[in-house]
Amino acid sequence: MRLSIRWLLLGVATASLLLPLVALFALRSFDAALVRQTERELNAQGALVAALYQAAWAELHDKVPGNPRDRWHLQNTYTPLSARIDDLTDLADPIPDPLPVRAEPLPEPHAAQFEALSGVLRNAQVFNLSGVRVLGLDACSVASSRTQSECYSALPEVKSALLGKASSALRARVSDQPPPAWGSLSRRGDVRVFVALPVFDDGAVIGAVLLSRTAESGVEWLFKQRRDVFYAAGVVLLLALGVSFFFSRLIIKPLSTMKARLESGDDSDLRLAQVPAPLEIQTLGAALDEKATQLLAKSRYIEQFAANVSHELKTPITSIRGAVELLQESGREMSEDQRQRFLANIDAAAERTDRLVNRLLQLARLEAGHEQQEESVSIGHFVKTLPSRYGDAVAVENRCPDELRYNASTLEAIIGNLLDNALRYRRSAPAKLALDVEGHQLHIRVEDDGPGISADNQKRLFERFFTTERDRGGTGLGLPIVLATAQSHGGRAEVGSSGEGTVVDVWVSV
Fold first, then answer.
1. What is the pTM of this model?
2. Residue 46: closest CA among 195, 228, 235, 264
3. Domains with residue ranges and CATH for the chain
4. Which is it for strands 204-214 and 394-398: parallel, antiparallel or unpaired?
5. Given 169, 344, 375, 453, which is the most exposed site by the fewest CB atoms within 10 A?
6. Which of 467, 465, 469, 464 is nearest to 484 (CA)?
7. For residues 344 and 243, which has the higher predicted lDDT (pLDDT)?
């Protein structure tokens, strides 16, 4: 997983910021759903009340109730009325206070008939909490869940219903009563839903039904569903803890794993960058992998280097110690020639030790990347100094541009060691030194006419301390120094040998 810690933290911060906004939006959306649910319930109640009013009206007019489906243009036999309120912020004007009252009472037969309907509406209000008014064509109530007969001609939804179109409206709830208990159904809402339905008989409007009820609020619904809400909150809390644990584990676990692997001392099982982790930790693991590999390589190098040094210095030190012990024990009895021979052996061993130590230091600096930086010199000038050191034993062919300059210590480390080796093994012909520029690299070639090197020995030429001329003062460090110098300058070294001589090619970047 290559997630960035920056993006993980941004995601957590964004979630923390958006969560309240999402909660508010969800609660607002839930309030709208509750309003529409209230409207649908009022539609259903209104349809029943309209059917009761139609039956009472038909009985008063000595006729059979007509079919309302034709007027509603219904396509299906059973079609519920849909909700029409979409915007909770679109509140209608409040109902005028006081409302006009019916000027004349209803005729006696009508009054008795509709009083019975009013009783039904008042009894039903105990359970459905809906205020219901059955209105005549004059918009005044003929039956109501209230005790007073009022007129609603000023309400837009009533006007629409008397024209044959169902209408709904949303008004702010106004109450002169103190807030009821939390368990009271639909009494803490902020808005009241009004629904006006036309009443038809044989295609003609004979009245309207006006219903109203306070919509249940989302907070009230949550209170009534508090047990389920607590369960849901517990699940959400556990989910949040799980998510937090997951993301913290993404950060902490790989760090702990990396720490354990570093502390284990098992060099073969570092692989820090392979731990599943965010991008920054994987990058850190890759950097630690690289550094650990370098430290491991240096540790093994130092271990091997120390073993090689110990082995190589043991011979001259043993020779010096043996010669000194003999001189101490029998020096007085020895002849002058014997003493001089032992002293010469001591001097030769000391000289070999000094040469070995100096070359070891040079090789160590090169392999550690601390090559001595000297002022660059012209390659042409450098090769002109070779005859003073080697005389006719070296033939030089320089095809480099006169203006080409290079580090003097680098040239000395490569050319000096190659010529020393070539002159040690040559038979009679001079050693050949050729310099040329190939692209962005300086090509150095040294040839000799020596007996050549066996195939098995060629594979080990660049190993430290490998030499076939130890008895002639060879240290086995010349070619390793050449290779280390070339590699430190982005180059390489190759050896080719046969019975007719040996060729060493070195390339370094210029």
1. 0.46
2. 195
3. 5-224 (3.30.450.20), 291-365 (1.10.287.130), 375-509 (3.30.565.10)
4. unpaired
5. 375
6. 464
7. 344
